[in-house]
């Protein structure tokens, strides 16, 4: 197959990775993409590391053997934290992962409260802890969410139903100036987060890692 027409593979446990796919297509409009949704094993955010590694290996194998992908995007913060190092060691194919946009958030809002929404599994990983160690996180509040991704996935066609949960999560943190979305599913709740702060007549800056991942993919492909 002509290397220029070989597709780029993208996978996630559910529909959250579609937000990453959208950003990749925006920056790379002439590329072909294959998206795998591992819905049977959704969500990854409450699974064991060994289980997640098995799934990311299986999905990567499928994208490489069935679709001959020239690059793969692990469109899940949890899967990236748990499995991307293993994938990079095993395959010569370029792998791009997701990580919370902590750096741009803290650079833009260095002294006021920033809230990071993430999954419990991501929060426990050494890769995540190493990322945190690079910054002064004295103004960062980390809020692991056990079932927010599941709620968004289950209501992806009517995400407004998740607003009460967003309201419950953010009410104790209404003084925040920034929100970091540490899960690709959370990107679909961005309008709800904006609504929460608008209802309080406040402004909020929201950061996610999708654009950074898409730009990294573009750089790797030249």
How is this structure best described in words?
- This protein is α/β, with parallel strands linked by helices.
- 44% of the residues lie in helices and 15% in strands.
- It is built from ten helices and eight strands.
- The protein has helices at residues 18-27, 49-65, 77-90, 102-108, 120-124, 126-132, 148-154, 163-170, 190-199, 210-221, and strands at 8-12, 33-37, 71-74, 95-96, 114-118, 140-144, 178-181, 205-208.
- The strands form two sheets. A four-stranded parallel sheet has the order 2-1-3-4, with helices on both faces.
- Strand 3 (71-74), helix 3 (77-90) and strand 4 form a beta-alpha-beta unit.
- Helix 1 (18-27) crosses helix 10 (210-221).
- The radius of gyration is 17 Å and the shape is globular.
- The chain starts with 7 loop residues before the first strand and ends with a helix.
Element string (H = helix, E = strand): EHEHEHEHEHHEHHEHEH
User: What do the pLDDT scores average to?
Assistant: 95
Physical arrangement of strands within the biggest beta sheet: 2-1-3-4
End-to-end Cα distance: 19 Å
* Major sheet characteristics: 4 strands, parallel
Number of distinct helices: 10
Coarse structural class: alpha/beta
Number of strands: 8
Give me the Rg, rounded.
17 Å
Helix content: 40-55%
* β-strand amount: 15-25%
Low-confidence residue ranges: none
Q: How would the global form be characterised?
A: globular
Topology:
Elements: E1 8-12, H1 18-27, E2 33-37, H2 49-65, E3 71-74, H3 77-90, E4 95-96, H4 102-108, E5 114-118, H5 120-124, H6 126-132, E6 140-144, H7 148-154, H8 163-170, E7 178-181, H9 190-199, E8 205-208, H10 210-221
Parallel strand pairs: 1-2, 1-3, 3-4, 5-6, 5-7, 7-8
Helix pairs in contact: 1-10, 2-3
